[in-house]
Each structure stands twice: as structure tokens, then as C-alpha cells.
Amino acid sequence: MSKVPADLRYTKTHEWVKALPDGTLEIGITDHAQHALGDLVFVDVPETGRTVGAGEPCAVVESVKAASDVYSPVAGSITGGNGELRSAPELINSDPYGAGWLLRLKPAHAEAVGGLMTAPDYEAMLQTEGG
Amino acid sequence: MAFIPHTPKDVEEMLGAIGAKSIEQLFDEIPANLRTRALAGIPDALNELEIGRLMNERAKLDGRPLCFIGAGAYEHHIPAAVWAIATRGEFYSAYTPYQAEASQGTLQLIYEYQTMIASLTGMEVSNASLYDGASAVAEAALMAARANRKSTSQRILVPATMHPHYGKVAVSTASNQGLRFEELPYCTQSGRILVESLARFDGQDVTALVIQQPNFFGVLEDVDALTRWARERGIFVIAVVNPTSLAMLKAPGEWGGTGVDIAVGDGQPLGVPLSSGGPYFGFMTTRMAHVRQMPGRIVGRTVDLSGREGFTLTLQAREQHIRRGRATSNICTNQGLLVTAATIYMTLMGPQGLARVAAASHARTRELVAALSRVKGVRAAFDGAIFHEAVLQLDRPVAPVLKALASRGILGGLDLGEHYPELGHALLVCATETKTAADIQTCANALAEAMKAVRAA
User: Fold this and answer.
1) Which residues of A, range 53-72, sit inside 8 Å of B by Cβ?
2) What percent of the residues of chain A are helix, what percent strand, and what percent coil, each to the nearest 5?
3) Rounded CA separation B71/B416 (Å)
4) Domain of B379: which CATH number?
5) Is the dihedral of CA B157, B160, B163, B166 positive or negative?
6) ipTM of the complex
7) How many domains are there within chain A?
8) How many folded domains does chain B comprise?
9) Partner-chain residue, chosen from A47, A67, A69, that has the shortest CB–CB distance to B317
10) Which stretches of chain B drop beneath a pLDDT of 70?
11) Would residue A5 count as lying in a domain?
12) B96-154 per-position pLDDT tens digit
């Protein structure tokens, strides 16, 4: 059973969102997602300053099985990417909610996060997906 | 093994499961006026004996002309061993097999091909080949648009001295994906691009500059200055090169000191017969930094669990069968058979053999230009240095002169009127190592006769 921390928000496409004290959001892919992908071999770390819409591809993670898009959970502008992942993509496998974070984003609308799934919602979704 | 996997019983069961009466019924939604009917004008099938006889008759109509046309496809000597080996059962398949790793020999050959092409172009990594030179240029432009993240304009500068067909294919392939191709004019005296003419782009967002070396006129571009100009401005450089010429000329990996970003070209000169225009193959090399944006497939060398060497397809995760619409390219294959021939050709020739072919082709072309320029009314069009092609200026229309030469069994070159009307009566000629001094004299004598005949007419 994959880990789903209670204090984060989630998307249907398996991204997690953490609200940081400065009002920005930290975004990564969930434990379930990294399990499904397998060993990650490359991460296309997003560039700072890019503006993305909700549901728009903002990064690519590549495993031995597949290259997958990561979708921005909300609209906003990217304030930073996790440069560590360029040389150590496996951090996403070992610590998906910590050292394996992907990008930070300044949301266009602060309230948008409230519309995302809570941990119980996401767990329920994984159950129905058979995850 | 049957290649049609479904028996009539399978088909019946599948149709039953979805409630359809026939396969034909599945196409009902296509309006009748869009359906193809039986093709008209297709003759009855012929057996092997009959088709052999017909093809021999047709081949006789072609004759055995003495060919001085290059323009992107070149008549080189192909050692008999090339196709004797390429057509061995172990190699004679045009396709990378499914479950590719079961075919270690095929993968090793492609790996050797990649190594040779990377070495020839002076670049870090090669893919397993593309369809041809023209589609390789289009793919390189698309790749540059993905990889050059400093640029958002998707503007690609293309010299008018690049092969006109390559430009057309690039526009067809990539313009609907948002790329804009802008033509760079050339100097009509030297037949090449002047780096000073690029000053008008200073301060503008340009994604990539294409440089063909030698260019379509056979003239050598100032590749160092052009590459430096582009790279100083964050503009990607796409080199389009003739592989034979690289045995004599500076490799794209060294242009301008830093080298180019992507090098492509048509591999036909490496052991592939002219064969009425194809199939040929395209090659593509790049820097490791851009490898994940490179289309096509790459064979890698690895070790298995017991530490034994093996070959495998690598970096497949970005191909179409996995990434669908977001794949780096719709090309997920390579020109296996022609790559096999080219790899054998390069192996047999070696770097020194290829250098001799290049030097002989260059020398023959210089002799050809000298001999033809002595004919009254004919002169070299440009003063720039050439490799193994040159443009001649005639004082009368080219088409009837070529027709007169053809009647003497000589293909005298390509009339540039269609693509370069500004050059007037211009003729593109080529000689490779396959032409002797006697062939060149025959051509010069015939040209002198043809020129007189056209004037008389």
C-alpha cells in the first residue's frame, strides 16, 4: 500500500501539492506514481519563470519503462525546480514527498489549492483504481 | 509462421462479441464518396518469368548513360562485397526485429554504424538512421525547436544554397507544427552565404541556422564563421553534410571551434546505389546534452547479469509507441538494410579508402570543370572553392543542350533553371571517382557539339 501523507493535496494524475509558508506550492509525484513508473532514470527539471495553466504539462519524468508528463495541479508561475534530480533522479523513488520534490510554483489564485483532492479522497481513488 | 494472426473463426468470434455482421460493416461510417473503389488501369498479375522479362526490357530503355548529375545523389563505386554481405540471410531484412534484443547481430551492426557516423561527423552520439537526408533536415529542425529552450520563436534560417527538395520536405513536415523557415539569400558571385548578411538578425530570437556543406552548388560555405555567428547568439546550428566529403573537410563537430548542435545528411554515397531515387537513408548525430530530444532509436552497449557484453535498444521511452502524441518524432524506425550496406562499405573502405574516394572525386570534378569551361560559351559560375560539384554558366538555354547530350548517351548535369532562375542558363555538374579522363573528354567533346547544335537551331 503506497504512502499518502495526510497534510498534502492530490490530483487525479498523481501529483501531490504542499502549501509552503511563503504562499508558494511545492509539487511532486506521489509514492503510488513512482511505484508504477519504476526506477527513474531522467527528470526534465522545469525552468524557473515559466507560466503554466492548470493541468498543463510542466515536467517530464522518465523511467526504464516510460517517459511521463507531470501536470501542473493549478495555474501559476514556476519559482524553482529541484536541480538535484538532474544527477539523482532516483530521489523520487526513495523519497517522493521529500528530497524528490519536482518544482515550486506561485499559484495564480491562492484559493485554487482548496479545489484539489484531500488525502482521504486520493486514497479512495487509488482503492477504486485497484492501487 | 503465419503473418495473418486471425483465423476466420477468430474473426467470427470477435465480430460476434461486438455485434457486427462483417468487417465491412465496421467501415459503414465512412461516407460512400470517400471510399476507394477498385483501382482502374491495374493490369493482371504476372508470374516471375514474365515480370523478369518485362523489367529487363524496361531496363534496356534506360541504357547505360555516362552520368554527370549529382545534386544530392552520387554515383560511387560500390565494392561487390558490400551487397554480397548485406544480402546474407542474417542481415537481409529491412526491419529492426520485434523483440530487438533477440537479434544481437543486427543490434551490434547498428551500434558499429552509430560509432562510425559519430566519428565521421565528429559528434558525440548518432541515432540508428532516419529515412533520408531531406526528412533528417526536417527532424533536425523540429529537434532544435525542442532543445533550444532559450528560443521561443521557432524560426529556422535556411540558406537558399541548401538542396531545394530538403527545404520543401522540411516545410511540409514541420510548418504545421509551428516552425517557420526563412530563406537566406546567397552571394551570386561566390555561390555561398555571406556571414555579413546575417547582421540583420542581430538581437532577434532565432531558433536555429541550417548550414549545408558542401552546399547544393558544390561550393564550400564559410562554416566556421557561420557557426560562430550563430552560437554566440544562442542559435542552434544544424549541419547538413555529405558523408564522403567529411573524409576531406572539417567535421561538423569542429566547426567554429565549438562544433554544431546537430549534424544530418543523406547516407546514399556510402554504398547505396542510385536506384531511381531511393530508398536511401538519413543520418543524424548530436551532442550528448541534446540526446533526449533526438528522434529515432539508439542502440547501446551494455553487460548482462553475468557481465557479458550485449547490445540493446536504449532511450526508447521517448518514442511513439510509448509517448504517443508527445513522442519526439513520428519516426520510430530506421533504414536497416541500407544502414547495413553503409556499415559494410565504411568497414571495407576504412578512413583512408574514403579519403581516397573524396580526393579522387574532387580531382575529377576539377578536371571536368576545366574541360567543360574550355568549350566556347561555357564558364564556371562561381569563384568559391568546391568539393565534387560545380555550377557552369552557359550562354544559351540549358534544356536543349542537355537533350542533345542525352541523345549521345550522356547525362550532362542538372538544369538549375527551375530552382534558381536568377542564375540564368546554369548547369550543375558532378564527377566522382567513377569517371575517367576519357569519360571527361567524351563529355567535353559532346558538349561542344551540343552547344553548336543549339546555336544552329
Assistant:
1) 57, 62-67, 69
2) 25, 35, 45
3) 10
4) 3.90.1150.10
5) positive
6) 0.72
7) 1
8) 2
9) A67
10) 1-3, 94-98, 317, 320-321, 332-333, 456-457
11) no
12) 666 778 889 889 999 999 999 999 999 999 999 999 999 999 999 999 999 998 899 99
